[in-house]
Amino acid sequence: MKIYDFKLAPNPRRVRVFLAEKGLNVPLEEVDIFKGINRQPEFLKKNSLGGIPVLELDDGRHLAESVAICRYFELLHPEPALFGKGAFEQATVEMWNRRMELALFVPVGMVWGHSHELTRARIKQIPEMGEASRKVVEQRYDWLDRELEGKNFIAGDKYSIADITAMVVIDFAKFNNISIQPEQKNLARWHQAVSSRPSATA
After folding, report:
1. What is the residue extent of each domain of the chain?
2. I need a surface site. Which of 10, 20, 122, 160 has the fewest CB within 10 A?
3. What band does 19 get if pLDDT is binned at 50, 70 and 90?
């Protein structure tokens, strides 16, 4: 078993943090996406969309998409329960993880794609779209700051995959010159807490 990884990308980090929280050690193989290794025919046999990370099982089967990989390990190693326990808690974690993906990850990705110099040669950038997405992210930070008032973690009282997703996205946003603002005290408190966990360095 191994995971095809790229150290600088947010989705592979999401899996690494998840595994660290579980206390699991899975071998990693670095795939340089900047060199387009993930777009070559050999890698496309593992994931036809070319995305990273990809989990390769000992029998040669593959799983792509970071949350799917995390769910696989959650079922094999249910403690600590990072997807929640019981119907309501699991649904709440799912709701918040999806919100972190759709409300934050998507617009941050648009800023990355349409604003950053590293993506200029890869896609046709539309600067106006990048700037509009930046404003969306800034508004979503205000929203999340309000939501975190009186809460220790994104989905309630327990650390979950929703916190992992949000931390990874917010750290990636800093790479795109979007930062938590001084007035966003709840968001800053939460971010400091989750970033202090040993798993955050995975």
Report:
1. 2-76, 87-201
2. 122
3. very high
